[in-house]
Amino acid sequence: MGSPKKNENKGFFAAMTSGFSMFGSAMSRSVNGLLSYEGVEVINPEGGKEDAEEEAQRGRWKDEERDSYWKMMQKYIGSDITSMVTLPVVIFEPMTMLQKMAELMEYSHLLDQADECEDPYMRLVYASSWAISVYFAYQRTWKPFNPILGETYEMANHGGISFLSEQVSHHPPMSAGHAENEHFTYDVTSKLKTKLLGNSVDVYPVGRTRVTLKKDGVVLDLVPPLTKVHNLIFGRTWVDSPGEMVMTNLTTGDKVVLYFQPCGWFGSGRYEVDGYVYSADEEPKIMMTGKWNEKISYQPCDTEGEPLPGTELKEVWHVADVPKNDKFQYTHFAHKINSFDTAPAKLLASDSRLRPDRYALEQGDLSKAGAEKHSLEERQRAEKRTRETKGQKFTPRWFDLTDEITSTPWGDLEIYQFNGKYTEHRDTAESSSSASNEADLKSIEFNPWQYGNISTE
To answer: In angstroms, rounded to a whole number, what is the distance separating the alpha carbons of residues 263 and 224?
Structure first.
C-alpha cells in the first residue's frame, strides 16, 4: 500500500516520495586499491563519491585493528554474523540488547495517549509516533553486548511501567520482553538476523511486536523496516533504516503505513518519514510527516491524500533534550536504563546492570571489560557443555515458548509469551522486604544461570 496518487504528482508527499527514484541511496564508492584492499565500499552520508577515499581513513578503529578485522571479516561476507564473530569491546557500548529493548519505553506516554484517545485514526498517530521515537536511540553506532542465556533486564520507576526482558535462546539468539502499566501491555519476541556485506551489514528485525490498549482492548501489530549499518571498519560508522513501517490495528483493520526515506546524495532525505493512516477500507484519513531524529507531525487529509481545508500540521512528538558531548551518544533515558534508580527493590541476579564487562566499560576500563566479556562467554560455553553431557535442556523462567509460529518479511518466528511468574515474584519481593539501596544492588553477583529451568530431555 503506497501514498495516494504519488505517481500522479498529486498527493502532499509526491515530491518527497519521488526521492526514492531520484536519489536512491547515499553515494558510495568501491575504493579499490585503498591500503591494498579490494572492494571496500565506503559511504559518506554527508557527501558524494569523490570523497570516499578520504572518508575511508576516518572512523574509530586504529590502523592495525582495522587491518586485522577487515581480513578476518572478509570470510564472513554474505553470512549472518549475529553471534558468529567475537568483537573487541572498543566498539561496544555499556548496554546489552535486553536494555536496548527497553529504550522503546522512553516515550511511552504516547501509548497512554493512544489508549485514552476516542478517535481510532488519531490512536494510530500516537501509537506509530511511539514506534518511530526509538529510532533516535537506534542511530547510535556502538554495539550493545549480546545477552547471556538466561540474562534479564528489569525496569521500574518510569511512567508506572513494569518492564522485563529475558534472553530465551542462545542459538539462535532470541529475546522476549513484556511491559505494562495502567494503559497498555507490550509484548515482543525478537530474533535479530544479519547479513554482512563487507564494510556494511543489514540488520533484519525478525520479530513480533504487539501492543494492547487496555481501555478498549485494541491490539496493535508493528512491522518495522530493516536497518543498515554503514562503514563498519573503514570510515565513520552510521545507521540508516530505509523502507516501510506498518502498524495495524488487528481489532478494526485500520493501519498506518510510513516510509523511512533512504539517505541520498549529500544527506538528502536522511531521517525523513512520511505516510498515511488508513481506514480498514484503505482510505487515507491522516497524513504524517517529519524526521525520526527530530519530530513527527500530522494533519487530516481527504481521499486524495491532500490536507483538509481549515486544518493545519500539528506536532505529535519531538525528541527530548539530550546530554551534550556524551561519549556514547546516550539520551538521559539511556542513562536511566543503566542506573539503579530504575531497578526494582529486589533485583534479579541475572540483570544486565550487574554484568561485570558492561560495568567495566561504563567505568572506562576497556582491558577489564574485555577480560570479563571473555570470562562470561567461556562460562556460558562451559554451562552448555555441562547440560549437553547430562542430557539437560534450558528453558527460560519468565517466558514460555508457545506453539505459535508467525511469518515476518525476513523469516518465520517462534513466539514466546510472558507467563506471569515474574509478577508473582515481584509482588512477593515487594511485600516481604524493604527496598535495597544502590550499594546493596551493586554488590549482587551477576548470575544468569540461577533462574533458568533445567530439565532432562
So the answer is: 17
- The owner of cell 533515558 is 333
The rounded distance, in Å, linking the Cα atoms of 170 and 150 is 9
CB 165 within 8 A of CB 195: no
CA distance 238 to 226: 14
Instruction: Please provide the CATH number assigned to the domain covering 71-432+446-456.
Output: 2.40.160.120
Please determine, for residue 433, whether its predicted confidence score (pLDDT) is greater than 80: no
Alpha helices in 27-62 (DSSP H): 52-56
What is the rounded (10 degree) CA torsion for 386, 96, 363, 332? Answer: -160
Cell 574509530: give the residue.
Answer: 60
SS3 412: strand
* pLDDT band at 351; cut points 50, 70, 90: very high
Closest to 337 (Cα-Cα) out of 133, 159, 158: 158
Q: Kindly give, in sequence order, each residue whose CB lies less than 8 Å from that of residue 432, ignoring residues fewer than 6 positions away.
A: none
428 HSE (CA, 13 A, CB side): 6
- Across 148-217, the runs of DSSP E, i.e. the strands, are 152-158, 161-169, 174-180, 184-196, 201-213
- Ranges 61-75, 82-96, 210-224, 227-241, most confident: 210-224
Contact call for residues 166 and 151 (beta carbons, < 8 A): yes
Name the grid cell of 297: 507531525
In the structure, how many helices (H) and strands (E) does the chain have?
A: 13, 22
Confidence of residue 1 (pLDDT cuts 50, 70, 90): low
Residue type, 413: L
Q: Which residue has the cell 553515494?
A: 27
Q: Are strands 92-96 and 143-145 parallel, antiparallel or unpaired?
A: parallel
d(CA 456, CA 375): 27
Residue 440 CA to residue 297 CA, distance in Å, equals: 45
Q: Which residue has the cell 505494562?
A: 180
Query: Average pLDDT of 178-187?
Result: 97
Q: Which residues contact 147 (CB under 8 A, 6 or more apart)?
A: 96, 97, 98, 167, 173, 175, 352, 448
Q: Identify the pLDDT of residue 106.
A: 96
Contact of 223 with 246, CB cutoff 8 Å: yes
Cβ distance 108 to 134 under 8 Å? no
pTM confidence score = 0.89
Helix 120-133 / helix 109-116 crossing angle, nearest 10 deg? 170
